Fold each of these.
Amino acid sequence: MRRVFTTTRGQSLVEFALILPIFILILVGIFDGGRLVFAYHTVNNAAREGGREAIVNQTLADIQARAAQHAVALDIPPADVYVDFRCNSTFDCPLTPDDADSCDFLIGNQKIVTCIAVVQVTYDYVAATPIIGALIGPMPVTGEVRFPVEFNCVGPGCPLGN
C-alpha cells in the first residue's frame, strides 16, 4: 500500500509572505491619510486665526505672522499666507488698485469696516512613504476664510498710522 504524504508546514509562511506587504501598505496609507487630515485642519485653523487678526488689525505683517504662528507644525512661512480686502459687492473676485472703491485704499479709513477680509493659507502635502507619494504626488492643501472687518485699525502699528 502506498502512503501519500500531505504536509502544510510551509503554507502559512507563504500566505504570510504574500499578505504582509499589502497589510503594511494599508497601515502606512492610514498613517499618511492621518497626516493629510492633520495638515488640512492645521491650515484651516491658521487661516481662521489670520482672519481673526485681519478683522481688527489690517497690518499685513501681523496677519501673516499670526497665521504662520498657528501653522508652526507644518513649517509654513508667512509669505505663504495670502491676505486681501474686498468690498461687499464684489467679494468673490479681488479688486485691482484701479478700482475707485478698493478696500485696500480704505485701510486706515472708517469705510474699511464694510469690507471683507480674505485670508488664504496654502501648504503642499507630500506623503511620507515613497510608494504612496509616487501614487498621489504632492497635494495642495488650502484653507481660506472670509470675515467682515469689524474695526478700523488706528494707531502707530497700523498701515496708515494714527
Amino acid sequence: MTAPVPPPPLPEGAKPRPAPVIDAEWAPHWAASLEGRLVVQRCPACGHTQFYPRAHCLVCRHAVEWEQVSGQGTIYSFTVIRQNPSRSFRHLLPLVVALVDLDEGPRLMTNIVGSAPEEVRIGAPVQVRFQLVSDAAALPLFELA
C-alpha cells in the first residue's frame, strides 16, 4: 500500500475534514491507516471477514483478529453530494460517497476521489489510498483503478 498523503490546501474560510474519534475497537484500524495499510477483522474460527470493527465475529461470536487486505475492491453503489453547508465539506463538492466491496469480502463506506463524478460507475474496480486527517488517523479513500 502507499503512505498517507496530506490533505490538499484548504480554500479560504474552509475547515479541515473532521478527524475520527478513536476508541479501543477502532484503534488498530486507525494505527494501520497511518502506515498506509487497510485492515479488517477476520475470525480465526470460521473465516468470516467484517468491517466495521466489533468485539466478536458476527457469524460465530468468536474473538476476531486484524488482517491486512489488498485495498482493492469494486463499487457496489454510490451517490454524488452536490450541496453541503458544512465548511468542513463544502470545498470537497461534488463529493462521491460510495459503498465499496473489498476483494476480501467486507463492504465499507468511503469516498471516490481523483475522478469526475461522471466517470464513477457501479461495478468499477477501485484501489485504496490514504489521506491524513490527524496525527492519529488517515482516511481510506478510493480511486478508480
Amino acid sequence: MPDSQPSSKRLVLVTGDTGVGKTTVVERVVALARGRGYVCAGLSSPAHIVDGRKIGIEAVNLCSGERRLLARVATEEAGVQVGRYTFDPAVIAWADRVLAAALAARPDLLVVDEIGPLELERGGGLASVLEPLAAGCVPRALVVVRTRLLDTLQARLQGCPVGVFTVAVETRESTPGLVVDWLFEATEHRRDGIEKC
C-alpha cells in the first residue's frame, strides 16, 4: 500500500506480471493527469502488434507523440539481446535523449516505461535516468518495473516517498485513478487552500 504522507516529491512504481496491462495503466494515468491540467513528459512503451501478435515494443515520446520501434522479438539483426527481444541501440539512444529533455523541462509528471533488466542488470538502456530519479530532480515520477525487479529498483531509488501499485486483471481499471490521486494529493490540497501536515 502506498505511503499516505503528503510530500513535495513523489515517485510511483507500477509493477505487475508481464502482459497484465502496466503500459495501459500508464497511458490512462497520463490522460487523467493531463485532464487535471498537469504537464506529463517521458516515455511509454506499448506493445507493437501485427496481425494480433506482439512482435516488438515501441517507445513513444509523451510530449510529441513520436513513436519508434524499440525492440523486436529476437531476430538475426544486430542489436542488444535481452530475453526474447533485440533492442535497437539507435532507438535506445533516442529514448535516452527524450528522457534527458523531459528531466531538463521538469514536468509535473515524468514517466519512464520501463526500467528492466537492461538497466538494472547491465547498466544500459535508460539507466542514466536512475540517478536523477533517486535525487528527486522532478516533482513527480512514474516508473514501470516488472515484479521480479521491484526490490532491486526500490534499492536504487531512495530519496523521496515511494508508492508501489501492483497491476492485476482485477485492479487494472481502478489503478490509474488511485495513482493520480496519490501522486498529486498534496498539490491538490494546496490548490484548494488546505495544506495537510
Amino acid sequence: MTIFKSRLTDIGSAITTMPNAKAWWRCLLVYVAFLACVLPLGLAAGFLQPGLAPLPIAKLALLPIHLFLRPALVEELIFRAALLPRDSTRVSRRHLIGMSLFALAVFVVSHPLHAWLTRPAALGLFSSPVFLACATLLGIACTLAYLISRSLWPPVLLHWLSAWIWITLLGGRV
C-alpha cells in the first residue's frame, strides 16, 4: 500500500507543480534536440510529409483540445507521472535508468497495442518502424522533461505540440 500511496502523492505533486523558468528553458532545449533528431529521420523515411492537413475546419478547431486530453495528458499521466519518480534523487541512478527504460518501453509498445485493440485500421501506421522510432524519441524527450521539471506540464506540452504538428502540418492521421 505504501508504494501505491507514494505513486499517488507523486502524481498529485506532478500535477500541481509549475516549473520555474530555468526548468522550462531546459525542457525547451530537450524539445529542440528531439526535433533535430525526429525531423530528419521522419522526412528522410517519407513518414513526415509537409502540408496542411485536409481536415474540416470544425475538426481542426477541436483537434488541439482532443490531442491535449488524449494522447498528451492521459499518456503523460500514465507513462511519466505514474511510472517514474518525481524526485529522481530518491532512487539510485541505476534504478532511475531502469525505471525510465521500462516506462519508455511500455510507452512505445502501447501505441501498436492500442491500435490493435481499438483502431485496427491504424495498426500499420502505429507499428511501423519509423513511427516507433519517432515515438521512442518523443518518449525520451518527455521523460527528460519530466525528470528535469518534476512536473507533468512540460512533457504534456511536448507531447501535445508534437502530435498537433504531426497531424496538422506533417501528414499524420487522426
